[in-house]
Amino acid sequence: MTSVMGTISHKAQRQAFSILIDQFLKHLDKAENRTATYLKLVDQAERFWGNGADKEKLDLVRKAFQDPDNRWVKFLNRVLDETDPHVAKMTMLNLGYEAFLRGTKMIRANREKYNCNIPWLILFDPTSACNMHCEGCWSGTYGPKHNLSFEDMDKIVTQGKELGVYLYMMTGGEPLVRKKDVLKLAEKHNDVEFSIFDNSTLIDEDFCKEVVRLGNITFQLSIEGTPETNDARRGIGHYDAVMNAMNLFKKYGIVYGTSICYTRNNIEAVTDPKFIEFIAEKGARFGFFFHYMPVGNNAVPELMPTVEQRKKMVDQIRYLRSDKCDIGFFPMDFQNDGESVGGCIAGGRNYFHINSSGDAEPCVFIHFSNTNIHTHSILEMLQSPLFMEYHKGQPFNRNHLRPCPMLENPKLLREMVERSGAHGTNEESEESVEHLCEKCDDYAKEWGPVADDIWAHQKHTKKKYENYIKEKRENPSLAAFEHRPAANDESASKRA
């Protein structure tokens, strides 16, 4: 009876939000109504959360919406103005209501219920096949060996929704090699948001029309700076394919961002404000920046950024998000934005990865597993030995500029894989944890003191909700991140 009533309540609630969003979008052409409608949405979110609402954050959002010159309000207005109305509605309904509001509530409750990590999103690979061979990519040589069936993908989404997961990302391989099944999945599960990491080469007019019809698919297009820096790693002609995809997405009002792997060779090009402004004008609204990871036996460790380059990256990402920069683009850097998300988000803490063979991996860069979608449920995957090692170990470092158990704390990954008995899953050729981690040892030693110095010069606040094990939440000394005075402060004390 409870589940039936819950389903009825969910449908009624979704319908209420749908009507509210329709009313909101109806007034977008009237500037004087925008502030009022933005505030109504905030009020509705506060009512939904009830006692669990963060009133301090909501008040800050209200204040921002009341300022027409606020950078991010102007950004939001532009996104809405240039997005197809149906796409805008479905994004707000699925990503806003289902994922951010309802899904977050369910996920937090299930973390306590099952005493394990429950993610906010699930990343999976429809196929290992890819029509490109980018330098240093572990998947570039897989070929069409492995595919998740439509039934596999349907199982992932169906079981994920039962836990509160309403955001699903796809990578590979190239996901659009399975274009028909991707569209079929998005149509069947039209109440969730899908987001695709894509190389742009298979995007055409007919596909864009289907995306607009469905309304619940966004994209991250791979690009690495100038035509020269991009095609040097991704192959001649790829840059032109990206430009074509961007033009089509802008024409059809499809929401998209970029996926940028920064390396020693391209880091200056991909963080240049002129480049960021260029892709923003092309219609990209956000960007995921990924530090190059030396994963796989065909990895090129020499592509890893230098310590000095990474130090500059920390500053540059913060500048691009600051009020000093007025570019309509929101960048995220998973390696350097650890404080915003509490450190490493893998192992199901906020996400995990299912490869094209069905293996559940804690991270897209950590190719080890104890479970497979063909033999286990999503919940069983999250309770598997390796995932529980992540659950108990997070955060892996008190300094969130050193979040990763591979790149910055390789000793910890070695230990977790050994204790869990996880097996290698690299589809090209199995890579031992020792072989993987030894490529990161020197980097970790060099970056550690630099990261600690940056961290010591910053102020840090303890979040009201921390997604760590109960012991670490209740005993702040085990996972506290108080500000430590900088070494040159007169009051500096000995660093912890």
SSE layout:
Layout: H1 2-26, H2 31-49, H3 55-65, H4 71-82, H5 85-114, E1 121-124, H6 150-163, E2 167-170, H7 179-188, E3 193-198, H8 205-214, E4 217-222, H9 227-234, H10 238-252, E5 256-262, H11 267-271, H12 273-281, E6 286-291, H13 307-321, E7 330-333, H14 338-341, E8 351-354, E9 360-361, E10 368-369, H15 378-382, H16 385-393, H17 410-420, E11 423-424, H18 433-438, H19 441-456, H20 470-474
Could you explain the architecture of this structure?
The longest helix is centred in the N-terminal third of the chain and has 30 residues, at 85-114. Helices cover 48% and strands 9% of the residues. The N and C termini lie far apart (53 Å). Helix 1 (2-26) runs antiparallel to helix 2 (31-49) and helix 7 (179-188) packs parallel to helix 8. With 496 residues, it is α/β, with parallel strands linked by helices. The chain has helices at 2-26, 31-49, 55-65, 71-82, 85-114, 150-163, 179-188, 205-214, 227-234, 238-252, 267-271, 273-281, 307-321, 338-341, 378-382, 385-393, 410-420, 433-438, 441-456, 470-474, and strands spanning 121-124, 167-170, 193-198, 217-222, 256-262, 286-291, 330-333, 351-354, 360-361, 368-369, 423-424. It folds into two domains: 2-103, no CATH class; 119-391, TIM Barrel (Alpha-Beta Barrel), CATH 3.20.20. Strands 7-6-5-4-3-2-1-8-9 form a nine-stranded mixed β-sheet. The protein has a two-stranded antiparallel ribbon with strand order 10-11.
